[in-house]
Amino acid sequence: MEVDDADIARRLRGCYSGAIYDAIRELGGPPSVLPVDLALLDPEVPVAGPAFTLLGSRKERLSAHESLSSWTRFLSAAPPDHVIVCQPNDSTLAHIGELSAETLQRRGSAGFVVDGGARDVDFILRLRFPTCCRYSTPADIVGRWSVDDMACAITIGAVGVDNGDFVVADRDGVVVVPRPMTVDVLERAEMLMSTETELRQALREGLDPEAAYRRYGVF
Fold this sequence. Notes:
alpha/beta
């Protein structure tokens, strides 16, 4: 039975990132965990959904108009129900702020993951718009950074992210699920979580840890 993206995203939100990582590892998938310093601004607001990828870079002699035109063009193109995943190739500027976060939220975006920075953090937290970044800074992109491409292959750390891959971000970190593996990974993660629930109860009832591992095959 075919499963649509909305249902996959809903079920992935019911999984924790550790179980998804375990499922990808067991199924022989590629590196899937984004760098450990990339974290949700609010760990209480996790996100899961298909990726809409964004690539940009710093540029010399860039006008404010050129940078803001490229950025607003992206905001207009961002599809609903997707997690924006941005490789800015920059570690000094904020690549998301209050107005952009509110715009994306109102247009139906599921969240924003950037291998870079954010600003207006208090405002974004009040919006409860899922935002994952490495740092915060007041410095914005105006006149210094612009979008190079959208819906393209990008790399964050050791992880390749293709447009349409699924992304899960929670308190533990960010995991990328290759689209061709998504259903298999989801089903395996759900099975692992069910097994872990049984294992947890057995441990609470006094089962020896080694015996529990032999019985359930996970720990």
